[in-house]
Write a structure and sequence with these properties.
The complex is a heterotrimer of chains A (255), B (297) and C (270). Chain A has 9 helices and 2 strands, in the order αααββαααααα. Chain A has 2 domains: 141 residues, no CATH class; 72 residues, no CATH class. Chain A is 69% helix and 4% strand. Chain A has 255 residues and is mainly alpha-helical. By secondary structure, chain B is an alpha/beta fold. Helices cover 37% and strands 21% of the residues of chain B. Chain B contains 12 helices and 10 strands. In chain B, the strands form 2 sheets. Chain B has a 6-stranded mixed β-sheet with strand order 6-7-8-3-9-10, sandwiched between helices. In chain B, strand 1 and strand 2 form a beta hairpin. In chain B, helix 5 runs parallel beside helix 7, helix 6 crosses helix 7 and helix 7 packs parallel to helix 8. Helices cover 39% and strands 23% of the residues of chain C. Chain C starts with 5 loop residues before the first strand and ends with a helix. The interface between A and B is large, with 33 and 45 residues.
Chain lengths: 255, 297, 270
């Protein structure tokens, strides 16, 4: 059974950096362009993320994410370019439609911000196993119980689909139609959702008991089977990123 | 040396050493119910014994099992009376996670015992050990031991959900065994398994028993209970009707009153009044064979 | 031309290409109550799902009461062949027992009055008539199992299949289910089951099909099948306990139940 994850296995330098450092990067890459008083910083962050993605060889996986958001962003460009309230400087026209500079600039800023966020998150999400990320957070102090919930949700939800198909079979066996027009499908909702919910509740309770007898609520400090994900420059990188953030904030204050 | 205040100072030294489990006047009622699920239960189990628990559904067998690991009363709440002492430690006054170091429990459904938070069988077994805060090297040693004992070492890198029912149940047992309890309680461990899976699990339980672990098992498969148990506890409506050797229990002639039936071999011998030298009916295939063959000679 | 109630011709099925689960099955089941036994993964559940029309054959045919399952939806076939699933929690969703039992009958075209009548009759057969207006969620697992059985009986299908009816049942529960199956047989229904309890099969069913590796390994009258001890062991199955003891004691006949053996010995002694 596959667990829910966007992780793609690989060996480039990105994979060798620990999850916490990548979280730092996301925070910094998003906050700096917002805080910095100059637009150019936005482009620099974007370029840095893009370089990391290229050198990390995950560009292929990022493209689908980009194309999907690009479709939505095109509509932003069109709407802002045509209809923004303070539009007064025309840039170009297509037939009867005029695109204005103010709107297009604004749309550009939005697009850059969105891509920035997407790139930064992609760097984390494509190169980090969810279980490694969660374990790093637990080591840093996240409650192990929350860590367990996050870890198990990713696997248990796909497992539930097996139960769902048994339930669907059981109700179809009793003459329930599940395909066809909308009204048919709506009628099929309760006979399907009822047992799904019941089964989940029962399973959750049984699982809670099984976890209890494996010491889940122990007050002892938890240890880890896996060795800590140590990456060579994590300290340096985290301090550098923090420093950049502080400098940007100072820059803004002084401007 | 600290003395656990839960120790009952009235026990003699002999009691404390010999009796792994002491249950005294245990009564329990689930929340929002009116009837007692357990009605004045008292018994003792010695180290290394294999105890089978039989009885009709709702006789209190599962509730009793859960009272040995602390799920009753700590997980449910409810009304509780009497004492359960595991190696001198009183269940009522202890945390489930501390009791878990002495008594492990395996449930009926292999699937809901999979934590779901681990991606390999190896890590799955580590779950309880991580909660115990063990050192890595100690964990690895225990996991290797548990995997071999349950004969699932070859699955160590597989996803826990990719196992058959019998394999999953053995993984659940391994996860408990790695915590090194001296007692293991199994509540109908094979009822959802196919014949091969059941055989695998019974063999594993037998191996555990040979390692010296005290086993308490609830089962409806009467022939298996008769084969493996040192003593059998017959429960009915929250009480213990009788607690004796398999032969003594299954030789009783009022079993049907309590919703149980003797093993097929015993029923045949009862019909023809074919007894062994002690005046009791045989309860396993081999015993029945021996006795019948002797009678015919 | 008289057709059997179930006709299977050269059935092949796989979930994934290249991994065939059912490898060319041909058989007919008409009057004899039949138990399908075998290891998990041998194809029993898949076979039953194909009979129910929940899956369609890759090649070959299945005819249920003369209808080709390839041309009929599962909901349509539900008029002729019912399946009691293993876990009652997989189907119960109403908060009144009678409503739950009436769900199937209403779906397959019984009108309100008829559905209520057949449901009450079914509840009576399983011994739960007095609980008809209770909430199923307030009842025990055993009672819910009986409700799920009643839900299918109420659909008055010619064929009823039980998927693991004896799991987690105690002695009394098993006897009750045995009684229900025998009543259905007496009413002329064709009863099939997938099951692991060999003693229960020996006491209740007339024909046994042993599945292994996607094909029937043995197929015949119960007594005949259980006499092939070696073949059964090779499929990781064992004969009923009585059969094992009698075989070991050297009896030539294959005995299926304790009662049968006792009766036969007593006859000899008279």
């Amino acid at each position: 059974m596959k667990s829910i994850s966007l992780y793609v296995p690989g060996k480039t330098f990105i994979y060798k950096i620990d999850p916490i450092t990548k979280l730092f990067y996301i925070a910094v890459a998003i906050i700096i362009p917002i805080v910095a008083p100059a637009q150019i910083v936005s482009y620099i962050c974007l370029a840095v993320s893009l370089l990391i993605i290229l050198f990390g060889k995950i560009i292929k996986k990022v493209l689908p994410i980009i194309s999907f958001s690009a479709i939505i962003l095109v509509t932003v460009v069109i709407i802002q370019g045509l209809f923004k309230l303070d539009n007064k400087t025309p840039m170009f026209s297509i037939g009867p439609l005029t695109f204005y500079k103010e709107g297009l600039s604004y749309a550009l800023v939005i697009c850059m911000r969105v891509f920035n966020i997407l790139f930064a998150f992609s760097i984390l999400v494509l190169t980090t196993k969810p279980s490694d990320l969660i374990e790093s957070l637990v080591r840093k102090g996240l409650s192990p119980k929350i860590g367990y919930v996050l870890d198990s949700v990713l696997q248990i939800i796909p497992e539930m689909t097996a139960t769902m198909s048994t339930i669907t079979d059981a109700q179809r066996s009793r003459g329930l139609e599940t395909e066809g027009k909308l009204s048919t499908r709506i009628k099929a909702f309760f006979p399907l959702i009822g047992p799904v919910v019941m089964n989940s509740l029962v399973a959750t309770r049984e699982r809670a008991m099984a976890l209890e007898v494996r010491g889940f609520n122990s007050k002892r400090e938890k240890s880890f089977l896996n060795e800590e994900f140590k990456s060579p420059y994590s300290r340096v990188l985290q301090w550098t990123l923090t420093l950049l953030l502080i400098l940007t904030i100072l820059w803004r204050i002084l401007s | 040396m600290d003395i656990d205040p839960a120790f009952n100072l009235n026990d003699t030294l002999e009691d404390i050493i010999m009796n792994k489990i002491v249950v005294e006047n245990l009564k329990y009622r689930y929340p929002l119910t009116e009837e007692l699920a357990l009605n004045d239960i008292s018994f003792e189990v010695n180290e290394g014994e294999f105890i089978g628990i039989i009885g009709e559904n709702l006789a209190g067998k599962s509730t009793l099992c859960q009272s040995l690991v602390g799920l009753v009363p700590h997980f449910y709440g409810g009304a509780y009376g009497g004492k359960v002492l595991i190696d001198g430690m009183e269940v009522l006054k202890s945390e489930i996670s501390d009791i878990a170091l002495k008594v492990g429990m395996v449930f009926q459904n292999p699937f809901t015992q999979v934590t779901g938070s681990k991606l390999t069988v190896y890590e799955e077994i580590a779950f309880g050990l991580e909660n115990m805060g063990l050192e890595r090297s100690e964990m690895i040693e225990r996991i290797d031991y548990a995997l071999s004992l349950l004969d699932i070492y070859k699955f160590k890198d597989r996803n826990p959900f990719d196992l058959s029912g019998g394999q999953m149940q053995r993984m659940a047992i391994a996860g408990i065994i790695a915590m090194k309890p001296e007692i293991i309680v199994l509540d109908e461990p094979t009822s959802q398994l196919d014949p091969q899976g059941s055989e695998e699990v019974f063999k594993a339980i037998q191996d555990l028993s040979h390692e010296g672990i005290t086993v308490i098992m609830v089962e409806h498969k009467i022939e298996k209970i008769a084969k493996y148990s040192d003593r059998v506890m017959l429960m009915h409506k929250g009480s213990i009707v009788d607690f004796d050797t398999p032969k003594k229990i299954f030789s009783k002639d009022d079993l049907e009153k309590y919703g149980v039936i003797a093993p097929a071999f015993t029923r045949i011998c009862k019909a023809f009044d074919v007894k062994d030298d002690n005046g009791l009916y045989p309860v396993t295939l081999d015993e029945a064979y021996d006795v019948v063959v002797n009678v015919n000679e | 031309m008289l057709m059997s109630r179930i006709d299977v011709n050269n059935l092949h099925f796989s979930y994934n290409k290249g991994d065939e689960i059912l490898k060319g099955i041909s058989l007919s089941i008409d009057k004899e109550s039949t138990a399908i036994i075998g290891q998990n993964g041998a194809g029993k559940t898949t076979f039953v799902k194909l009979l129910k029309g929940l899956l369609k054959p890759d090649s070959g045919d299945i005819f249920i009461m003369g209808k080709d399952t390839k041309d009929t939806t599962a909901a349509e076939l539900a008029k002729y062949i019912g399946l009691v699933f293993q876990n009652p929690n997989d189907q119960i969703f109403k908060n009144k027992v009678l409503d739950e039992v009436m769900f199937g009958p209403l779906n397959i075209g019984q009108d309100q009055a008829k559905a209520e009548e057949s449901s009450m009759k079914a509840l009576e057969m399983v011994g739960l008539k007095d609980l008809y207006d209770k909430n199923p969620y307030d009842l025990s697992l055993s009672e819910r199992k009986l409700i799920s059985i009643a839900s299918i009986i109420a659909m008055e299908t010619e064929i009823i299949i039980f998927d693991e009816p004896t799991i987690a049942q105690d002695y009394a529960g098993k006897e009750k289910i045995k009684g229900i199956i025998r009543q259905l047989m007496a009413d002329g229904k064709l009863v099939l089951t997938i099951i692991h309890d060999m003693d229960f099969v020996a006491e209740t069913f007339e024909r046994v099909i042993v599945f292994q590796n996607g094909k029937p390994l043995l197929d015949g009258k119960t007594r005949e099948v259980y006499s092939h001890e070696d073949v059964l062991y090779s499929a990781y199955l064992e004969p009923p306990h009585v059969t094992q003891l009698c075989k070991k004691l050297g009896y030539k006949d294959t005995f299926l139940t304790v009662e049968e053996f006792i009766a036969s010995r007593r006859d000899i002694n008279h």
